[in-house]
Amino acid sequence: MIRTRFYILSIITLISFKVNAQVIFEENFDGNQLNMDHWNYEEGDGCPGNCGWGNRELQIYDRNYVEVKDGNLVITAVKKGDKYFSGKINSKDRVEILYGEIEVRAKVAQGKGLWPAVWMLGCDIDEVSWPAAGEIDIMEYVGKEPQRVFTSLHTPASHGNTINTKKVFIEDIEEGFHIYKAVWTEKSIEFFIDGNSVYKFIPEKYDDEHYPYRKPFYFLINMAIGGSFGGPEVDDSIFPKKFYVDYIKVTKL
């Protein structure tokens, strides 16, 4: 009986802890416009010096393809004539996170050539550049590989075609919204999809080459088109396509 009581008390304590956990940041995309206290628009084609946004992507980013509607961030990808347009936002210099449980609820856009993503970059990127700043890819979906989701980490020791990655097969990933989570600590980063752990990264060494994740990072949300990862082929018959993000919530561990 004593053991049973202790077990029940432990469950209650755990539930209470989760309910009362400190929320560091929460974005629910309410209203009808982007909260500019949290976000910046990124626009253009990545030129000069970074044409195609570093991945030979085809899209031109334009704020007109970013909207807040019905409680969601909606990024639309279109083709007009021989040009592709899409949207991208970031929280640089506005919302910066150091460690926590990061939860994102999103619905991917499906189609060959699309590359919707929710990810993070180190806030010192202007000083040290990429990959020294580090990158955390909470969710990447590549339309040419349906029913699969990528979670990846880019470090100075492994970037680009990084070994710090996991491609997960999920049969219904294109159907409705799913929850993507990263649990980020001083020692590790673990990724979850719909509550299931899919990949945990523990570095070989805790230095800036292998674990540049002991500093603040900011969020990026975008939908690229084509490029070295999302393409090179694009199915032009799919447009327009929409990528939805319901919320982002960061809880202190």
UniProtKB/TrEMBL annotation:
Which residue range or ranges hold the GH16 domain?
4-253
* CDD domains per UniProt: GH16_laminarinase_like
Q: Which family does it belong to?
A: Belongs to the glycosyl hydrolase 16 family.
Q: This protein is called what?
A: Family 16 glycosylhydrolase
What is the organism of origin for this protein? Answer: Salinimicrobium gaetbulicola
Q: What is the lineage of its organism?
A: Bacteria, Pseudomonadati, Bacteroidota, Flavobacteriia, Flavobacteriales
